[in-house]
């Protein structure tokens, strides 16, 4: 069972270890959801540093140069994300292995993104763990590292070892971590911000076909914020009973359809309050409330503050 809301955790510190040939797409899908979680929560839930093995800029596969904040030897934190992507075999060798093994004593968790799993395995850091890698390398990976239990998964979390198969899966992984650590309500907000239609999958980490109708229910809710549908009608449209929809949504998101729908509508209200000059009455109508006072009460119960206070702090 997932948790819908949680008390926000202390700031988590990530190191992102880049190598020449890293994927811009993978990097963005790793850090942008964390940046969005910080913005939406108005808290520094995540901090990250770009790292390299040696001083100097690192160049991505498409030519983007990044100037790292520091070298790996000076860094420590909650999680080290290893991101070589293309040309990863050229980054293997004893220096990389020694650096990663030393870093494993300073970081609470080690994550291999895309082909980063190969470098972690070569350093002996995945021995006895379940792991995945970019699926183009899966066969070679399993043959090269028989001591690793290779899995064809989008991502695998096995204790303090995390591996991920590629750039799109990196987004799913980080969304899963946000939902796990900060609550599914914030994860759903981040999914909305990135306009991921498959919202439940985005922060459930690739939820299987059993949750496909939850995704459809979320899409219906998002499409009918101003004129809300009844929960029985949503259940009918996704081809399930209300009881089944309730149970599946509680399992996937830790909240009832009514709670989730209210949050989506109030997220819209909060955005309009903060970013527009629309009257509260107009905002209430756009969020599916006929009575502005009812919306204000629901807003305060959900966010712990009033619409007017949010607007005042945003100005």
Automatic annotation (TrEMBL):
Keywords from the named record: Transcription, Transcription regulation
SMART domains: HTH_ARAC (SM00342)
Segments forming domain HTH araC/xylS-type: 215-313
Pfam families per UniProt: DJ-1_PfpI, HTH_18
InterPro entries tied to this protein: Class_I_gatase-like, DJ-1/PfpI, Homeodomain-like_sf, HTH_AraC, INH-QAR
Protein name per its UniProtKB record: GlxA family transcriptional regulator
UniProt organism field: Ruegeria sediminis
Native organism taxonomy: Bacteria, Pseudomonadati, Pseudomonadota, Alphaproteobacteria, Rhodobacterales
């Amino acid at each position: 069972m997932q948790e819908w809301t949680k008390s926000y955790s202390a700031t988590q510190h990530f190191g992102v270890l880049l190598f020449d040939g890293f994927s811009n797409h993978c990097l963005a899908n790793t850090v942008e959801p964390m940046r969005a979680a910080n913005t939406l929560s108005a808290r520094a839930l995540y901090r990250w540093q770009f790292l390299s093995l040696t001083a100097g800029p690192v160049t991505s596969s498409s030519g983007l140069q990044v100037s790292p904040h520091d070298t790996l030897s000076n860094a420590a934190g909650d999680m080290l994300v290893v991101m070589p992507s293309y040309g990863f075999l050229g980054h293997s060798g004893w220096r990389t292995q020694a650096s990663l093994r030393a870093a494993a004593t300073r970081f609470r968790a080690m994550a291999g993104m895309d082909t980063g799993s190969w470098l972690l395995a070569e350093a002996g850091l995945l021995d006895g763990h379940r792991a995945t890698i970019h699926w183009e390398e899966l066969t070679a990976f399993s043959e090269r590292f028989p001591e690793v239990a290779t899995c064809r998964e989008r991502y695998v979390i096995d204790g303090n070892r995390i591996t991920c198969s590629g750039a799109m899966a990196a987004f799913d992984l980080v969304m899963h971590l946000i939902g796990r650590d900060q609550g599914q309500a914030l994860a759903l907000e981040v999914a909305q911000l990135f306009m991921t239609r498959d919202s439940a999958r985005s922060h459930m980490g690739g939820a299987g076909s059993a949750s496909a109708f939850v995704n459809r229910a979320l899409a219906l809710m998002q499409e009918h914020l101003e004129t809300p549908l009844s929960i029985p009608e949503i259940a009918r449209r996704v081809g399930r009973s209300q009881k089944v929809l309730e149970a599946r949504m509680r399992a996937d998101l830790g909240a009832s359809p009514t709670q989730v729908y209210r949050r989506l509508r109030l997220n819209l209200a909060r955005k309009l309050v903060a970013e527009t000059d629309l009257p509260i009455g107009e905002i209430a109508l756009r969020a599916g409330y006929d009575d502005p006072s009812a919306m204000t009460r629901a807003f305060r119960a959900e966010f712990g503050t009033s619409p007017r206070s949010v607007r005042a702090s945003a100005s």
